[in-house]
Amino acid sequence: MLNRIHNKFGLRTLKGRIILFYIVFSLVLALFIFSPLLFIGKEQRLVDAENEINRVIHIQKMFISNWLEEHLVQLKTMAEISRKNIDDDIFMTNMIEEIKKNHAGFDTVAYANKQGIIEETTSNITNIDVSSQDYFKEAKKGNAYISDAFYGKISKNKIVTFSAPVLDEQNNFNGVLVGAVKLETINEVMGSYKDESAETYITDNDGRFITNSSKGDFGEKIHSDIYEKAILHEEPNDMYESNDGEIVLGNYVWVNDDRWLIIGEKNKENIYAPFKGIVKIFILGYVVSALLGLCMILFLSQHIQKSIDRVLKGTRKIGNGEWGHRIEEINSDAQEFKELSHNFNKMADLIEEQVISLMESEEKFRTIAEYSSDIISVHENNGKFTYISPAAKEILQYDPDELIGKTGVHLVHEADKEQILKWYRKLDTSGYAVITFRIKRNDGTYIWIESSAKKIFSNDARLNRMYMFSRNITDRKKVEQQLKDIAVKDSLTAVYNRRAFNEDYEKVWDEAIQHDRSISLMMIDVDFFKKFNDCYGHLAGDDCLIEIARTMERIAQEEHGKVYRYGGEEFVVLLQNKNVQDTLNIAENIRSAIEQLKIIQQVSENKPYVTVSIGVNHCVPTSNLSYMKFLEQTDAALYQVKNNGGNNIFYE
Q1: In a 3-state reduction of DSSP, which class is residue 516?
Q2: 3-state secondary structure 172-213
Q3: Which residues are catalytic?
Q4: pTM, entire model
C-alpha cells in the first residue's frame, strides 16, 4: 500500500519529496510559528498592559505620597509655630483661619486641647470630645498622624484627617492640631495623572474603598484576588475576577506607610483588542507567501534532480572504497552545480590523502605509546578506556586489558573524587585540563598521578574522544611535603612554628565567623625556664622543651587541635568547636600531664618538677572582635597566672 502511494505521487524522486516536504513543512511551520506568535503576541500585550498599569500606579503613588507629606508638613509646621502662643486664644483662632485660607486642601481645621476638647475650629463647632480618636492618641505619644478614611463627626463628609501634636516650650503635650480633607480631593489628586484604558482606585488595609470607582462604593469591602495578594505582599501573576465581576489584569502598590492600597486594573477585552487585527493581516500574508513558494519549489526541483543524480553516483563509488573515482564536471547555468562537481573531486582527492595519512599516523602513535614510560590512554566521551599503553602494567600493576571498558574512577582516592568530577567538567568546557590525584595500585597502595588530557569534540557527542598522558609523581609529592614541613615546623620541638600559627589562626578565625563556630586559645609558658637553663644548661633545656611539646601535641591531636611554638619556652594551642568547660578540661590535662613528666627542677619556687602556666580564652568570633585583640586577652590571662606563681590555669 505504501509503495503504491510512493509510485502514484512520485514520492520516490527527489522532486516529489521536495514538493511533499514543502507542503508539510508549510503546514507545520504555520502551526509552530503562528501558534507561538499568537502566544507571544498575547504575552506581549499582557506585558505592555502590565507595564502601563505599573507606570500609572507608581506615578499616582508619587502624587499621593507627596500630597500626604505636604499636608502633614503644613500641620507640623503650624503646630511648631504655636508653641509660644498656645494660651493665646486670638492667636490660635487666627492661625487656624490662616491654615484654612492658605491651604485650600483642608476642608476643616481644628485645635483640641490636651483633654481632647475642640477649642478652636474653622467650622465654629467647638466643645466636641475627640479624646477617643486615633489621631488624639497618637498626638499624646508625640506622633504626627494620617487617619483612615471615615465620615466626619462635624462635617458628615467622607474625610481623611492629618494631625500634629502641639507641645509647649518644655515639650509637654498641650493638644493636637487637626486638618480634615474631603475624599473628593484625593480623587482630584489621582485624576491629575491617569490612563483612560486603566482604572485605578484606593482601598484601606482592611480592603474598604476610599476613592470613587466603578468597582465599589466608599466603605464597601473589596472581594478579589488582588487584595489577597497585596495583604501577603505577593505579586499578581495572572488575570483575575475584579470586584464587579469583570476579568482584568491588575497590580497594586502600598502608600501611607502600607495603610492605603492603590490598585490599577485593565479589562481583558481592552488588552487584546489591538491584537486581533494584526492576526488577520498575518494569516493573509502567510497564505500568499506559501503559494508563491510552492511555485518556486516546482521550478527548482526539476532543475536540481538531474544534477544531484550525477553527484549521488559518485558518492556511492567513494563510499564503496573506490578512492580514485572522480566525476565529470556538471554543465549547468547554475554556478553552484559547477562548483559542486569541482569541489566533489577536490574532496575525493583530500579523502584519499587523509586515509593514507591516517593509517601512517596510527602506526606512529602506537609505536610511541608502546615504548613510553608514561601512561598514554584514549577514552570515550563517558571516560571509559578504549586504549591504554603498556606502561600501565609497571605504574599501576594492571594489565591494560583489565582496564579497557572501565572509567578507572573506582581506583581514585575517595578524597580526590570530587576534584576528578570538576576536572571532567573543565574538560567539557575548555577541552584541556591538568590534574594531580591519588590512585590505588593493584597491591592496594596509593600513588600520586599527574594527568594532562585533551578532549577532541565531534558533532556527535558519542564520538567525542579524550587523550590522556599520565605519570607517577609520588616521589615529587614526598619532596614537596618535606619542604612544606620544613617551612611550618619548629626545628627543635617538631611542632608547628609561629609562622604556621599566624597563617592558621587568621584563617580559622575567618572561618569561625562565617560558620558561627567557637575558638579556644591557650597560651602556655614553662615556669622558671630561664633559671632551668642557667642551672642545667641549654641542652637540658632543649630536651625539656621537646618532652613538653610532645606531651602537648599528643593531647591536642586527640582533641583535633594544633600546638605551635610561639617563641622560646612559650607555646600556643588552637582548638575549634569546644565549649568553655571542655577547653578548661583540656588545659588541665596538659598542665597535669607535664607535671607528671617529673622533669627535675630544683630552682622552681613551687614544685620540684617542671610545671607550666596556662592562659585560656574562648569565644564565638564576630566582626566586632579582632583576632589580635583575642590573642592579647589570652596573653593577659597567661601573665595573670605567672604573676600568681605559675603552675595553674586562668580563664580570661
Answers
A1: coil
A2: CEEEEEEEEEEHHHHHHHHHCCCCCCCEEEEEECCCEECCCC
A3: 569
A4: 0.40
